[in-house]
């Protein structure tokens, strides 16, 4: 047998990219590749890229430049760019960076084995189509390669919302939901391989409407069906749009014990004027009412969000309204970004806010969000939570896992094992995690 070729994949951006990278590794596994943790001994390097903000895309080009010496040392080394930068820039990547042999978008990576052959034959290959066929149907059907008790499972891709700042509808395409039976099959396989927590992924996951045997299923019904799987203990989903938060999904937070009390629900801004300019199609008020309904269903729900500051036209008053919304909601954790114009999106045509102003706003918003995050963590001290342990921690004898609320929790106790779910008492916090003891 020929010696296995080595594949190094570096993943940028969102959790869907993490999932896609695993599928790409499996697709190339069928062509004789095994993954390696180091670019230095690789026969193929794939960068699975993110285009959501400018910095994310620029990182890819600087990373590619660094592979020059590797390629000089090993002429057989092939370099590929996958993901959303690949989709958005296509051939342009080949022009800008002659080191690149292969460019593949998020909807065509099931074609990687054929592209790999072309590349080995000395060609350069680009495929950024949005094909008719479903890539999942053409990917290897064997069991997924699993090493952890938690896993991602893509149930929906693409977005039809067209927020004025966002590239996702262009890089990932229109909303497509995978059929129920395929998702259940993949989930069963994960559970058989020791997975106890599944996070359902989609760019707009709560818009899920997949074909079931008796018509269209929404996300809540899918979650309730998954919850019936013995051995699967925890279900999460991300990312959602407020307008797709339907009644049965809100109810599931209260009555489905396997659905974890953590919800990432981006609002982006607290100003109705800016929300309108962003084409978000909801108001600050309607978002706050929605949070109230969710908390009525599940009072201890931990909320996470996304915010953009310095969107074109954002005044001091608009920004203060964002601060007021944050105070009204109370987030357990959140992500916030300075607006970054993305080529091809409607907002990119509009005059921006001066950078110093945006930076100052971002600082103030992040200070408030961090304060809320710490307060939420501090409120956990003395409480009992259950933790699914995922990996050894930094210190000797330490294990780290996640609470129901997605807090990182570490425990030092030789009895704790990876994959175990245990009740612990929170004793203190460091900046990004909680320290706990077994009860
Ligand atoms: N500039 C800044 N932040 C953005 N996001 C999406 N597009 C942009 C952009 N052009 C943020 C949004 C989204 C998160 C994934 O990234 O907050 O929810
Ligand atoms: Fe982008 Fe999310 Fe808006 Fe869709 S809903 S356009 S993915 S920010």
UniProtKB/TrEMBL annotation:
Its main location: cytoplasm. Residues 5-121 form the MTTase N-terminal domain. One of its GO terms (cellular component) is cytosol. Residues 145-375 form the Radical SAM core domain. It catalyses: 2-thio-N(6)-dimethylallyladenosine(37) in tRNA + S-adenosyl-L-methionine = 2-methylsulfanyl-N(6)-dimethylallyladenosine(37) in tRNA + S-adenosyl-L-homocysteine + H(+); N(6)-dimethylallyladenosine(37) in tRNA + (sulfur carrier)-SH + AH2 + S-adenosyl-L-methionine = 2-thio-N(6)-dimethylallyladenosine(37) in tRNA + (sulfur carrier)-H + 5'-deoxyadenosine + L-methionine + A + H(+); N(6)-dimethylallyladenosine(37) in tRNA + (sulfur carrier)-SH + AH2 + 2 S-adenosyl-L-methionine = 2-methylsulfanyl-N(6)-dimethylallyladenosine(37) in tRNA + (sulfur carrier)-H + 5'-deoxyadenosine + L-methionine + A + S-adenosyl-L-homocysteine + 2 H(+). One of its GO terms (molecular function) is 4 iron, 4 sulfur cluster binding. InterPro entries: Elp3/MiaA/NifB-like_rSAM (IPR006638), Methylthiotransferase (IPR005839), Methylthiotransferase_CS (IPR020612), Methylthiotransferase_N (IPR013848), Methylthiotransferase_N_sf (IPR038135), MiaB_methiolase (IPR006463), rSAM (IPR007197), rSAM_horseshoe (IPR023404). Residues 378-439 form the TRAM domain. [4Fe-4S] cluster 2 binds at residues 159, 163, 166. Its EC number is 2.8.4.3. It comes from the Bacteria. Binds 2 [4Fe-4S] clusters. One cluster is coordinated with 3 cysteines and an exchangeable S-adenosyl-L-methionine. Signal peptide: none annotated. Pfam families: Radical_SAM, TRAM, UPF0004. [4Fe-4S] cluster 1 binds at residues 14, 50, 84. NCBIfam families: miaB-methiolase, MiaB/RimO family radical SAM methylthiotransferase. Monomer. Belongs to the methylthiotransferase family. MiaB subfamily. This is tRNA-2-methylthio-N(6)-dimethylallyladenosine synthase. It comes from Roseinatronobacter bogoriensis subsp. barguzinensis.
């Amino acid at each position: 047998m020929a010696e296995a070729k080595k594949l190094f994949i570096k993943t940028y951006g969102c959790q869907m990219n993490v999932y896609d990278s695993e599928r790409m590794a499996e697709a190339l596994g069928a062509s004789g590749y095994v993954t390696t943790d180091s670019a230095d001994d690789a026969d193929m390097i794939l960068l699975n890229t993110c285009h959501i903000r400018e910095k994310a895309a620029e990182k890819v080009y600087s990373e590619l430049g660094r592979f020059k010496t590797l390629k000089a040392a090993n002429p057989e080394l092939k370099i590929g760019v996958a993901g959303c930068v690949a989709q958005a820039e296509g051939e342009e990547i080949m022009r800008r960076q002659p080191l690149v042999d292969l460019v593949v978008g998020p909807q065509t990576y099931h074609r990687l084995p054929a592209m790999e052959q072309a590349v080995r034959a000395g060609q350069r290959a680009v495929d950024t189509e949005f094909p008719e066929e479903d890539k999942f149907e053409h990917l290897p059907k064997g069991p997924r390669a699993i090493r952890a008790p938690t896993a991602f499972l893509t149930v929906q891709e693409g977005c039809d919302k067209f927020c004025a700042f966002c590239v996702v509808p262009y890089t990932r395409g229109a909303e497509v939901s995978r059929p129920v039976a395929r998702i259940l099959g993949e989930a069963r396989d994960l559970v058989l391989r020791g997975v106890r927590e599944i996070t359902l992924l989609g760019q707009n996951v709560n818009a899920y409407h997949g074909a079931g045997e008796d018509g269209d299923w929404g996300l809540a019904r899918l979650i309730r069906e998954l919850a019936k799987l013995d051995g699967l203990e925890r279900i999460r989903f991300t990312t959602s749009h407020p307008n797709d938060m339907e009644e049965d999904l809100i109810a599931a937070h209260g009555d489905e014990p396997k659905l974890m009390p953590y919800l990432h629900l981006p609002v982006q801004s607290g100003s109705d004027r800016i929300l309108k300019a962003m084409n978000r199609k909801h108001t600050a008020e309607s978002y706050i009412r929605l949070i109230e309904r969710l908390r009525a269903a599940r009072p201890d729900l931990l909320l996470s969000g996304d915010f953009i500051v310095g969107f074109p036209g954002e005044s001091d008053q608009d920004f203060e309204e964002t601060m007021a919304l944050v105070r009204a909601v109370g987030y357990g954790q959140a992500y916030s970004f300075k607006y970054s114009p993305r080529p091809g999106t409607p907002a990119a045509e509009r005059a921006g806010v001066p950078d110093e102003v945006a930076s100052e706003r971002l600082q103030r918003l992040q200070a408030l969000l961090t304060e809320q995050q710490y307060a939420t963590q501090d409120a956990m001290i003395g409480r009992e939570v259950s933790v699914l342990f995922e990996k050894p921690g930094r210190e000797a004898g330490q294990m780290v896992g996640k609470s129901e609320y997605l807090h990182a929790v570490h425990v030092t106790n030789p009895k704790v094992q990876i994959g175990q779910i245990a009740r612990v008492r929170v004793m203190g916090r460091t900046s990004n995690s909680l320290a706990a003891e077994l009860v």
